Amino acid sequence: MPGPVYLSGERVDLRVTEREDIDFLQRARSDPDLRTPLTFTEPQTREQVEEFYENTIAADNGDANFLICRDGEDEPIGEANLFRVERDHAEVAYWLDADARGHGYATGAASLLLEYGFETRGLHRLYAKVVDFNDDSRRLLQRLGFSEEGRFRDHEFLNGEYRDVVVYGLLCEGWDGAERQ
């Protein structure tokens, strides 16, 4: 049985990640088209994903890990996370299965995640790190009001070459709360 809906938007719901979602997470973390932009250099075994679930998702560490589902559906199409929460700021991350991209689901999920971070958690600043070749994610962050704040040059070694990681940030007062398309 899937976890309950925690946040609901026009296109997507964010639901609580449960143990029975481990197979979905493992498939995603093993897909080369998805894992490379997420900087996972190797596919992950079920045991590794179970360990991630226990140490990160199920742990009471202040992180928020959600699965993205189309509005009213139980089957996950991606993941949205708020992690590295420190006092008044946190990192955001999100991803979608390939067949779910291009329909506004990432925008909806990221908007819900920002709403949760700023309004529910009372955070002052959210940030995201994106590998330089991930143009779709960079455009999404900019649409949501994030600004490029810096760049880690040659920070990740992916597919045989070093790539930059671009850091984006958004302050609470810079976020207008509206889902942008």
Q: Give the number of helices.
A: 5
Radius of gyration over all CA atoms, rounded = 16 Å
Helix content: 25-40%
Gross CATH architecture of the domain at 5-124: 3-Layer(aba) Sandwich
- Classified by CATH, the class of the domain at 5-124 is Alpha Beta
Largest sheet: 8 strands, mixed
CATH superfamily of the domain at 5-124: Gcn5-related N-acetyltransferase (GNAT)
N- to C-terminal separation? Answer: 32 Å
Structural class: alpha+beta
Strand order of the largest sheet: 1-2-3-4-5-6-8-7
Low-confidence runs of at least 5 consecutive residues: none
Shape: globular
Q: Could you state the order of secondary-structure elements as H and E?
A: EEHHHEEEHEHEE
* CATH topology title of the domain at 5-124: Aminopeptidase
- Look at the structure and give the mean pLDDT: 90
SS elements, strand count:
8
